[in-house]
Amino acid sequence: MATLLARLKVRAGMEARWETMMAELVDNTLAHETGVIRYEYWKGQEPRTWYGLLSFVSKLAFFTHQDAPYHRDQPYGDCIEDMHLEWLDPVDGASPLPHTTDSPLPADTPDNLREWENRSPIQVADWWAGRR
To answer: What is the Cα–Cα distance from 53 to 38, expressed in whole angstroms?
Structure first.
Protein backbone atom coordinates (compact mmCIF):
# COMPACT_ATOMS: atom_id res chain seq x y z
CA MET A 1 0.00 0.00 0.00
CA ALA A 2 1.13 3.57 -0.57
CA THR A 3 -0.22 6.81 0.93
CA LEU A 4 1.29 10.26 0.57
CA LEU A 5 0.54 13.87 1.31
CA ALA A 6 1.54 16.39 -1.33
CA ARG A 7 2.04 20.04 -0.36
CA LEU A 8 2.07 22.26 -3.43
CA LYS A 9 2.75 25.95 -3.81
CA VAL A 10 1.31 27.27 -7.09
CA ARG A 11 2.78 30.18 -9.04
CA ALA A 12 0.92 33.48 -8.72
CA GLY A 13 -1.65 33.85 -11.47
CA MET A 14 -1.84 30.09 -12.10
CA GLU A 15 -4.42 29.26 -9.42
CA ALA A 16 -7.41 28.81 -11.76
CA ARG A 17 -5.40 26.76 -14.24
CA TRP A 18 -4.09 24.58 -11.40
CA GLU A 19 -7.56 23.88 -10.04
CA THR A 20 -8.85 23.02 -13.51
CA MET A 21 -5.94 20.60 -14.05
CA MET A 22 -6.49 19.01 -10.62
CA ALA A 23 -10.22 18.56 -11.20
CA GLU A 24 -9.51 16.84 -14.55
CA LEU A 25 -6.77 14.70 -13.00
CA VAL A 26 -9.02 13.56 -10.16
CA ASP A 27 -11.87 12.78 -12.60
CA ASN A 28 -9.56 10.74 -14.86
CA THR A 29 -7.87 8.98 -11.96
CA LEU A 30 -11.13 7.88 -10.39
CA ALA A 31 -12.66 6.91 -13.75
CA HIS A 32 -9.73 4.86 -15.08
CA GLU A 33 -7.78 3.43 -12.14
CA THR A 34 -8.83 0.52 -9.97
CA GLY A 35 -5.91 0.74 -7.54
CA VAL A 36 -6.88 4.09 -6.00
CA ILE A 37 -8.15 4.23 -2.42
CA ARG A 38 -8.19 8.03 -1.94
CA TYR A 39 -7.36 10.83 -4.33
CA GLU A 40 -8.26 14.31 -3.13
CA TYR A 41 -6.97 17.90 -3.27
CA TRP A 42 -7.69 20.87 -0.99
CA LYS A 43 -6.76 24.53 -0.74
CA GLY A 44 -4.60 25.35 2.29
CA GLN A 45 -4.65 28.38 4.57
CA GLU A 46 -1.53 29.91 3.03
CA PRO A 47 -2.18 31.72 -0.25
CA ARG A 48 -1.45 29.60 -3.36
CA THR A 49 -1.03 26.42 -1.28
CA TRP A 50 -2.79 23.14 -2.04
CA TYR A 51 -2.64 19.70 -0.44
CA GLY A 52 -3.33 16.31 -1.96
CA LEU A 53 -4.00 13.07 -0.14
CA LEU A 54 -3.24 10.12 -2.39
CA SER A 55 -3.61 6.49 -1.37
CA PHE A 56 -3.15 3.41 -3.54
CA VAL A 57 -3.57 -0.33 -2.98
CA SER A 58 0.06 -0.95 -3.95
CA LYS A 59 3.28 0.61 -5.12
CA LEU A 60 2.53 -0.70 -8.61
CA ALA A 61 -0.87 1.04 -8.56
CA PHE A 62 0.87 4.30 -7.61
CA PHE A 63 3.44 3.93 -10.39
CA THR A 64 0.66 3.07 -12.86
CA HIS A 65 -1.05 6.31 -11.84
CA GLN A 66 2.17 8.31 -12.24
CA ASP A 67 2.67 6.88 -15.73
CA ALA A 68 -0.92 7.39 -16.94
CA PRO A 69 -0.99 9.89 -19.85
CA TYR A 70 -3.53 12.15 -18.10
CA HIS A 71 -1.02 12.48 -15.24
CA ARG A 72 2.36 12.22 -16.94
CA ASP A 73 1.59 14.66 -19.78
CA GLN A 74 0.28 17.61 -17.75
CA PRO A 75 2.30 20.88 -17.71
CA TYR A 76 2.71 20.86 -13.93
CA GLY A 77 5.99 22.76 -14.16
CA ASP A 78 4.08 25.73 -15.54
CA CYS A 79 2.01 25.90 -12.36
CA ILE A 80 4.06 24.53 -9.47
CA GLU A 81 6.45 26.84 -7.65
CA ASP A 82 7.32 24.35 -4.92
CA MET A 83 6.34 20.79 -4.03
CA HIS A 84 6.91 18.57 -1.01
CA LEU A 85 5.83 14.91 -0.99
CA GLU A 86 5.64 13.05 2.29
CA TRP A 87 4.85 9.37 2.70
CA LEU A 88 2.29 8.68 5.43
CA ASP A 89 1.42 5.70 7.59
CA PRO A 90 -1.94 5.54 9.40
CA VAL A 91 -2.37 5.33 13.13
CA ASP A 92 -4.09 2.02 13.85
CA GLY A 93 -7.69 2.63 14.87
CA ALA A 94 -7.57 6.28 13.73
CA SER A 95 -7.59 5.87 9.93
CA PRO A 96 -9.16 3.40 7.53
CA LEU A 97 -6.14 3.54 5.20
CA PRO A 98 -3.71 0.61 4.99
CA HIS A 99 -0.07 0.83 6.09
CA THR A 100 2.43 2.17 3.57
CA THR A 101 4.82 -0.55 2.45
CA ASP A 102 7.65 -0.77 -0.05
CA SER A 103 7.08 -4.26 -1.44
CA PRO A 104 9.09 -5.49 -4.43
CA LEU A 105 7.51 -4.97 -7.83
CA PRO A 106 6.22 -8.09 -9.61
CA ALA A 107 8.80 -9.69 -11.94
CA ASP A 108 6.69 -8.91 -15.01
CA THR A 109 6.42 -5.16 -14.28
CA PRO A 110 7.06 -3.21 -17.51
CA ASP A 111 10.18 -1.01 -17.70
CA ASN A 112 8.15 2.21 -17.99
CA LEU A 113 6.64 1.49 -14.55
CA ARG A 114 9.94 0.28 -13.05
CA GLU A 115 11.42 3.66 -13.95
CA TRP A 116 9.12 5.27 -11.36
CA GLU A 117 10.91 3.33 -8.61
CA ASN A 118 13.81 5.80 -9.00
CA ARG A 119 11.68 8.86 -9.70
CA SER A 120 9.18 8.43 -6.84
CA PRO A 121 10.57 5.92 -4.36
CA ILE A 122 8.36 4.94 -1.46
CA GLN A 123 9.99 5.92 1.80
CA VAL A 124 8.93 3.92 4.84
CA ALA A 125 10.24 5.64 7.97
CA ASP A 126 12.18 3.38 10.33
CA TRP A 127 10.33 4.72 13.37
CA TRP A 128 6.97 3.49 12.02
CA ALA A 129 7.93 -0.16 12.63
CA GLY A 130 7.50 0.17 16.37
CA ARG A 131 4.24 2.09 16.01
CA ARG A 132 2.23 -0.38 13.91
So the answer is: 7
Domains of the chain plus CATH, in order, are 2-131 (3.30.70.100)
61 and 2 in contact (C-beta within 8 Å)? yes
Q: What DSSP letter does each residue of 46-76 carry, written as one string?
A: STTEEEEEEEESSHHHHHHHHHSHHHHTS-H
pLDDT tens per residue across span 43-84: 999 999 999 999 999 999 999 999 999 988 888 889 999 999
Q: Please give the sequence-ordered ranges of beta strands (E in DSSP) within the chain, or none if there are none.
A: 2-10, 36-43, 49-56, 80-87
Q: What does the pLDDT look like over 1-29, one tens digit per residue?
A: 999 999 999 999 999 999 999 999 999 99
- Taking alpha carbons only, the member of 32, 34, 30, 12 closest to residue 22 is 30
Contact 26, 41 (CB under 8 A): yes
Question: What is the reported pTM?
Answer: 0.89
